[in-house]
Amino acid sequence: MQRCDYLLSQLDVLEAESIHIFREVAAEFERPVLLFSGGKDSIVMLRLAQKAFWPAPIPFPVMHVDTGHNFPEVMEYRDRRVAELGVRLVVASVQDAIDSGRVVEQKGRRASRNRLQITPLLDAIEEHGFDAAFGGARRDEEKARAKERVVSFRDEFGQWDPKNQRPELWNLFNTRITQGEHVRVFPLSNWTELDIWDYVRREELELPPIYFAHTRRVFERDGLLLDAETGFANRGDDEPEFEASVRYRTVGDASCTGAVKSTAVSLEEVIAEIAATRITERGQTRADDRTSEAAMEDRKKEGYF
């Protein structure tokens, strides 16, 4: 009798788990949507969705919650990648919500549109009838995200209550919801930042160039290097700008997303930096998550994450 041994790498196991989640949600829900920002996590999710349904096309649209304060390199990548795949792009615009009076823009030096994403996101979910939204959150990023289930329940107001989450045994997910409720689904829950970069290398995925070291005009605030080129970060007169070799570990609202000093211009060099660091990407690069230890959990309860 011939015996075959199948040895799966860690990436193979993670990939299989994520593909199972995509297929399960697509089978159980009527109108899923994939949240896509053009960042590395959503780029990996898009590849996993491709594999989950290949050779058929991805059977749901992608949605970008657009703050209007974006890095141009990321927006160029987003539009080009969506066109290549032929998927429908839904844009939930923070600027439209401001113009219509649905939200009020913050003022002051530390003003950010990050929290303002909640209203246009929930409006878009209601308008299009989405009942499941795939997100790229990982449990290694931050304490509040470590509390999430893979299928994370949101009530009729779009709010997350950590005490009202369903138990998940192994890979059994509770997908029952009533009218007006929806779930957030996190296929990358068990991945780490290093896993993401290893997968990008294995799959030869293209990333926006700001993920690699480049010379950029920045200024320092509270230990973060914020972008001085787009003008979204409200630089004060006492915050001089300077040029530095930097890269971004995560992308988001340019007003509060910091860069890190780096000379890593290749995947191998970036992976070596990530393997050596002991600071999470959000702890090192997101100004809004430094306001308090509970900052992200507060936004999750309001309905964004």
UniProtKB/TrEMBL annotation:
GO molecular function, one term: sulfate adenylyltransferase (ATP) activity
Entries under InterPro entries matching the protein: PAPS_reduct_dom, Rossmann-like_a/b/a_fold, SO4_adenylTrfase_ssu, Sulfate_adenylyltrnsfr_sub2
Protein name per UniProt: Sulfate adenylyltransferase subunit 2
Family: Belongs to the PAPS reductase family. CysD subfamily.
A Pfam family per the record: PAPS_reduct
Claim: ATP-binding is one of the keywords in the record: yes
Top-level taxon of origin: Bacteria
UniProt-listed Enzyme Commission number(s): 2.7.7.4
First-tier enzyme category under EC: transferase
Domain Phosphoadenosine phosphosulphate reductase: 32-258
Sorted UniProt keywords: ATP-binding, Nucleotide-binding, Nucleotidyltransferase, Transferase
Region entry Disordered, spans: 282-305
